[in-house]
Amino acid sequence: SMQCFPSLVLALSSLLGALALLQLSLYLRVPSRYGKHEERLCRPQGRLPARCAWFVQELPSFLVPALLLALRSPPRLEPLGCRLLCCLFCWHYFYRTFIYPFFTRGRPFPLQLLFFGTLFCIYNGFLQGYYLIYCAEYPNDWCTDIRFTSGLLLFLLGMGINIHSDLLLRQLRKPGEVTYKIPQGGLFTYVSGANYFGEIVEWFGFAIATWSLPAFAFAFFTLCCIGPRAYHHHRYYLKTFTDYPKSRKALIPFVF
Fold first, then answer.
1. Whether this model's pTM surpasses 0.85
2. How is the chain split into domains, by residue range?
């Protein structure tokens, strides 16, 4: 049976933090080239339909922790806090794998980005799952700890914002349309990247509830990965639409 190696958790978490800084340095000035930021003359080959791409990319984040749990003998079901935290992670990726892709109306996705995204989901799925299933130790009353309860509330709030913002973005396009329009409603009233803001809040909530290095490293990675994308989306909207609301911020209401 697999054992817990704290040094492995530390090494993988540290590498995740380094990858976060690399993402920030690569994409702070120049956006990642997909969606509204792709090159105009990009060749159509080397792409997968958005629905298929999202499914393939996100699936490992759900399957890897599930496989790690199945491999543990005897199965670890206690304490309750540990079980709930693992369920939160899998719940997010169940939605991202089996629900979100079948409603998205995004453009075809570059295979190169899909490859790296899938690798990341395998890596992070293993790190978070391995820590929670084999290493994490929580007291029996962790579910009533202020870190767990406040983190859980933030996670649920962030997930709600993320799902609602995705729904508003989907409604901007009719089936078959690929043009971009100004998002309206919800948190989009205040920020251009409402969907990204929701996901960042979600994973920082998870990190607080888990109170672990792997979860904080992942939350930091999320911020460094999609934070710059929200910033570039904001600049795109300002440049493309003359009537874009000037009061909107890029990512965080009333700040940026």
1. yes
2. 31-37+46-240
State pLDDT tens for residues 130-141.
999 889 988 888
End-to-end CA distance of the chain: 48
CB atoms within 10 A of CB 196: 25
Supply φ then ψ for residue 98, to 5 degrees.
-105, -10
Which two tokens mark 10?
């530390």
Which region among 79-88, 193-202, 242-251 has the lowest average model confidence (pLDDT)? 79-88
Question: What's the CA gap between 104 and 161, in Å, rounded?
Answer: 16
- 212-236 b/e (C-beta count within 10 Å ≥ 16 → b): bbbbbbbbbbbbbbbbbbbbbbbeb
- Tokens of residue 126, six digits: 């293993």
Judge contact between 129 and 86, C-beta under 8 A.
Answer: yes
H or E element that contains 112 = helix 111-130
pLDDT tens-digit map of 155-197: 999 999 999 999 998 888 776 666 778 888 999 999 999 999 9
Give, for 47, the enclosing helix (H) or strand (E): strand 47-48
Q: Which residue has the higher pLDDT, 70 or 45?
A: 70
Rounded CA separation 66/61 (Å): 9
